[in-house]
Structures are given as C-alpha cells and as structure tokens.
C-alpha cells in the first residue's frame, strides 16, 4: 500500500492529489535488471542520502527530512544546479513517487518501481514526467520532446540506473560522469 508522504501544497491541496495531473504529461522511462532480489534492491533505493554513492551526476545528496511522514532531500548536481526531491508516496518494498525541481520552481514527477523477476533478480524502472514544454500543447511540443528531451532523459536515466548497479557490484561509490558527461547535469 502506498503511504502518502507529501505535505500540503500552497493551494491547500495535498501534493498526492496532483499525481493525475502530472501523469497527463509526456514521459520518459528506462528499466534495468539487477542480479539481486527485490528486497536488496529496495534497500539500495530507499536509503537516506543514497544518491551520494549511486548517482554519477550527484555532487551531494542530503536529507532535509526523512521519516515515515515526510521524506525530502536536496540533490546538488555536478554543475551546481540544486533540486529538491519531495516524496509523495512511499510503497514499502515496491518503489515511490516524487516531485523534483528547483525550490519554488516547476516540478517534474518521477516514479521509481521495482519488479521481482526471480529469487535473485529484479528490475528497477524510473519514469519521468518532466515539466519541460508543459506550457505548450502536446502537438507543438511533440517533436522537440521526441527528438531532444526524450533522448537526453533516457541517457540520464540509463546512467543513474547503472550507477545503482555499479554500487551494488563493487560496494564503491560510482565515479562521477562514469558513463560520460551530461550537458544538463555535469
């Protein structure tokens, strides 16, 4: 069962109530299989400040609040850009939903989902519903999304998911820009 963790928005609605609006956006996802069970993969993605070891474009990741009622952290990318991640739902053992963006700025909606593939095999999918181009109609934004934003986000997601695999296999933090620099985050 998904536990709501998001606080009230400025308009008084709980952030969880905005999820259907976010899901109306165009999205990009990437899935990677891991040679570990679902429980171990959940431990990796649910640890506080986990992006410090697993994210190839992360300069630092620090919790703002991290308890069952409120999970929020700050992610500073290698290029200095600072984003706040506010977790909206926490599905123990299965994944979570969050919004991410600059404090007070537009937010992207992100879903992390774990699937069990066997005793010692599971997959992690990250789906991003970016705020980019949301001020344009889907018809006008389709080509820029399809040919610019989607490839950039797929490359980013592939690097992030491989970062978790690298950390799992080596026990060492992933080297920064390990699979190449990213023009948005490096």
Name the descriptors.
186 residues, alpha+beta, globular, eight-stranded antiparallel β-sheet, Alpha-D-Glucose-1,6-Bisphosphate, Chain A, domain 4
List the topology elements:
Blueprint: E1 3-4, H1 19-22, E2 28-34, H2 38-46, H3 51-54, E3 58-67, E4 70-77, E5 82-91, E6 95-101, E7 108-118, E8 121-129, H4 138-170
Antiparallel strand pairs: 1-5, 2-8, 3-4, 4-5, 5-6, 6-7, 7-8
Structure description:
The chain has a single domain (15-170), classed as 2-Layer Sandwich (Alpha-D-Glucose-1,6-Bisphosphate, Chain A, domain 4). Helix content is 27%, strand content 34%. The protein has four helices and eight strands, in the order E-H-E-H-H-E-E-E-E-E-E-H. The longest helix has 33 residues, at 138-170. The termini are far apart.
Short description:
The chain is α+β, with helices and mostly antiparallel strands.
